[in-house]
Amino acid sequence: MKKIILKNNKIELILINVGASIYDFKYKGRSLVKQASSLNNYYENTEYIGSTVAPMAGRYNINGEIILHSARDTFHNKDFMITKQDEKCVEFSYKYLKVTYTIQNDGFRIDFKATPASKIPLNITNHSYFCLDDKYDVNTHSALIKSNYMSLKNENALAIGIIGNNINRIDFNKTKVDDYYYFSEDNTFELLSNCSNITLKVTTSYPGVVLYTYNQPIDASNKYSAIAVECQYPPNTIIMDNNYSEYIEYLVRG
Fold this sequence. Notes:
- A hairpin with a 4-residue loop joins strand 2 (11-16) and strand 3.
- The protein has helices at residues 237-241, 244-251, and strands at residues 3-7, 11-16, 21-27, 30-31, 52-53, 59-62, 65-68, 81-85, 89-94, 97-103, 108-114, 125-126, 129-130, 141-153, 159-171, 178-182, 188-193, 199-203, 208-212, 227-232.
- Strands 13, 14, 15, 16, 17, 18, 19 and 20 form an eight-stranded antiparallel beta sheet that branches. A four-stranded antiparallel beta sheet has the order 1-2-3-4, with no helix packed on it. The protein has a four-stranded antiparallel beta sheet with strand order 8-9-10-11, with no helix packed on it.
- It is built from two helices and 20 strands.
- The protein is mostly beta strands.
- 5% of the residues lie in helices and 44% in strands.
């Protein structure tokens, strides 16, 4: 396992090559993300903490089998190679996927580039869990997100359609979530803590985001302790679009 540190006078981004994962992200010395209990746990990482989820993030019904985050074909716990590195940037590579992290003034950027040999469905995300204060409690957090629609789910938590929501703000002390929100404008949202007054601003090229308040952790003591932010295409799009060839054209990027 290899650890890489990118930093400036405001932030420190600590990465590991296993899963091209974010191990830690510090803003002015304060850690803002959840970590696995040990480095070795990233080789299993059944909760996908900080990892690159590929090729397919989300929950899908494939030929009657419910698949979560690519199941056995997942990249999130594999050894990526470090193919480029300087003081501000590092590129990880595994098979046809390149993941590039670049630090900026007070944040960082993630770029995914996939060049598979043939057309395949892709929906790649980073699966970091954020907590912006020392409480480790989502009840101190809220999200500012402009969304007019969200995924409609069935009893198996599979997205089966779209419903209206007209949301501008989510207060996590009032509601816990594991939902996909379509952006109504800007492809931007903010996560806030009312304790630390830190705001995490996220901008993405994806049309929406899954927000997950850690409702069902393996360790019950971690329940509602952080918020997973998963920018991606709508989960289960294969079924929702009912046209696999168009879905491939939509998701594959060369």
